[in-house]
Amino acid sequence: MIDVSNVRAGYGDGADILNGISLHAAGGEIVTILGPNGCGKSTLLKCIAGFLAPRAGTVAIDGEDVGAVPVHRKVRGYGVGFVPQTDNVFATLSVSENIRLGARHLPRAEREGRFDALMRQYPTLAAKQNRKASALSGGERQILSLVRALIAGPKILLLDEPSAGLSPLMMHEVFDAIAGIRDDTGMCIVMVEQNAFEALGIADRAYVLTLGTVAMEGRARDLLADPSMRELYLGGSVAG
Amino acid sequence: MVQFFSDVLIRTVDLALIAVGLSCVYSLIRFPNIALVQYAVAGSFLALLLQGAGLPLPVAGLLACLLVGGLAVLLNVTVFERLLASGSAIAMVGSLAVTMILSAVFLVVFGPDSRRFDLDSHPVIRVLDARLTVHQLTAVGLTAGAVIVLALLLFRTTLGRSMRATATNRVLAAATGIDARLITNTVVFLSGVLAALGGIGLALKGEMNIQLGMDVLLPVFAAAILGGLGNALGAVAGAVIIATAETLVTNVNLGPLVGEPLLFLPASYATAMSFLILVAALLVRPHGLFVNEVKRV
Q1: Nearest-10 crossing angle of helices B180-204, B57-75
Q2: Is A90 at the interface with chain B, CB within 8 A?
Q3: φ, ψ for residue A54 (rounded to 5)?
Q4: Cβ contacts (< 8 Å) between A83 and chain B: which residues?
Q5: Of chain A residues 120-149, which have a CB less than 8 A from chain B?
Q6: Residue A16 domain-assigned (yes or no)
Q7: B235 within a domain of the structure (yes/no)
Q8: CATH number of the domain encompassing residue A219
Q9: Which residue of A has its CA nearest to B176?
Q10: How far is CA A231 from CA A174, A215, B65, B129, B153, in A?
Q11: Parallel, antiparallel, or unpaired: how do β-strands A64-65 and A56-61 relate?
Q12: Shortest CA distance from B182: residue in chain A
């Protein structure tokens, strides 16, 4: 579904942040991208989403090179949903307005049908649908952001650190929701995370980046058992 | 007292639509576009030209508004978008330059003389103690109608929600599938239309000349800033406050304070008063009075 091949990318006239990264993600799986701060995780996700065009290499969706397609066209034309790390709700709009915006290109009846279904699925949001999004807690905002992406019926979901700033309890709730989305919809989910072990707990496969390159990749359960992962996330290196 | 309120209303109408346009466009491109006051001049003179070409004034006014909206988009795409790449301060200076260029063009094309629309004369209407002309009431109606339509657009339509979303968070709007550039230019178009309609309203109540825009520049900015730049409906409230201050200054008899039967301040003090209020308000609420109370566009 998503094929990233030898991508180099960076911001403005600056040096490359991504130095020839390749990645594959298929439908029905959660692929998590891990790594220390500054390794290029979010940059890679922005490249896939369309916020940043690759300087070299290709980003393909279902075999079509979409590296130069901007994010707003990817959302509508290629079924991509993107959930940013921070500022992930429209704070001045109500919860229901936030959600409906995600499906504003759909016919009204279809939009309202999906809205009602999602409200049944996420009763916490349903209870607060007329409140401003700014009144929600961090976890509720993250769920709202997910729901806004889901209402469009994406086939690919890109999540940038969905657990950022959440309490452990809320983090589990958000990860459970993400795993549920994969199980219920067969969606392709690519998730950048700092909480490596929590992310590996729900992911099918993972890529570990260092300095803009893929240092490790494999099945999530294998990486969880890999001692070098513990070294990396307890301050060691990935050497060897 | 009724006359006082009607004077406030009429002055509010002078400022409101241009201030709303300024605020709308600021909410998306984050710089106060000074050239907006010249769009008001362009609107009034284009309507005059089109009326002179034989069109009824309502049709001429509508066409003029659409043309000025188009001019606003053209200038945004060719000038302001590029200047904004260097920062909002550069774009603001650029908008001042565009204002001066448009002023020179208007002088060449329309000349320095004041003009009037070709309007039927009507007797003055008395509303309680206030005396109002039909053309003043028309301008009030146009302004009220435009503000209501804008509010409905913003809060009751998908386009309006997209506009508010883009103003709130441009990156997230793009991630939600909204073409932020298209939305921005739609708002720029609307701001041009609103400014042109404001200019036509000003000209309806009296004369138009190429100074019309510069005459309202400072109070329009005061109203928009007071309402919380970027807050379209706040700009209307800002216009009411500025209009009240200006009307108070020129209508209150200060004679008893100095032992004279009558003493009124010259009209030129009105702008100073509005800025006194603006400075005082901003010392208390630096982001404007209504930045939290009324939704941003």
Answers
A1: 140
A2: yes
A3: -65, 145
A4: 175
A5: 148
A6: yes
A7: no
A8: 3.40.50.300
A9: A102
A10: 27, 13, 66, 85, 56
A11: antiparallel
A12: A72
In a domain, B28, yes or no: yes
Whether residues B177 and A152 touch (CB distance < 8 A) is answered with: yes
Say whether residue B291 is in contact with chain A using an 8 A CB cutoff.
no
Q: Is A88 on the interface with B (CB under 8 A)?
A: yes
* pLDDT tens profile A145-175: 999 999 999 999 999 999 888 888 888 888 9
The ipTM value here is: 0.86
| Cβ(A59)–Cβ(A37) below 8 Å | no
Residues B76, B191: contact at Cβ < 8 Å?
no
Nearest by Cα to B226 from B269, B273, B266? B273
**B174: which chain A residues are within 8 Å (Cβ-Cβ)?**
51, 70-72
pLDDT in tens, B149-189: 999 999 999 999 999 999 989 999 999 999 999 999 999 99
Minimal CA–CA distance to B65: which of B26, B32, B21?
Answer: B21
User: Could you give the 3-state DSSP secondary structure of residue B118?
Assistant: coil
**Of the partner residues B158, B165, B174, the one whose CB lies closest to the CB of residue A93:** B165
> Do residue A102 and residue B179 have CB atoms under 8 angstroms apart?
no
As for how many domains chain B has, the answer is: 1
What does the block give as tokens for A28? 């029905």
Determine, yes or no, domain membership for A96.
no
Is A157 part of the contact surface with chain B (CB cutoff 8 Å)?
A: no
CA gyration radius, chain B: 19
Indicate whether A227 belongs to any domain: yes
- Report the gap between the CA of A165 and the closest CA in chain B (Å): 18
The alpha carbon of residue A224 is apart from the nearest alpha carbon of chain B, in Å, by 32
Dihedral of CA atoms B22, B28, B29, B35 in degrees, nearest 10, equals: -20
Amino acid at residue number B17? L
pLDDT digits (tens, 9 = 90+) for A106-146: 999 999 999 999 999 999 899 999 999 999 988 899 899 99
Q: Do A72 and B295 touch (CB under 8 A)?
A: no
CA pair distance A5, B20, nearest whole angstrom = 49
B60 within some domain: yes
* Reported confidence tier of residue B291, pLDDT bands at 50, 70, 90: low
Touching check for A48 and chain B: CB below 8 Å? no
**What's the burial of B265, exposed, middle or buried (CB within 10 Å: 0-12/13-18/19+)?**
middle
Q: Is residue B155 part of a domain?
A: yes
Cα distance between residue A53 and residue A68, in whole Å: 5
User: Is B86 an interface residue toward A (CB < 8 Å)?
Assistant: no
Contacts of B290 in chain A (CB under 8 A): none
> How many domains are contained in chain A?
1
Interatomic CA distance for residues A66 and A49, integer angstroms: 9
Kindly state whether residue A94 falls inside one of the protein's structural domains.
Answer: no
Residue-number span of the structural domain to which A196 is assigned: 2-86+157-233
B168 in reach of chain A (CB within 8 A): yes
Both tokens of B180, joined, read 């932020």
Which domain does B111 fall in, by range?
2-213
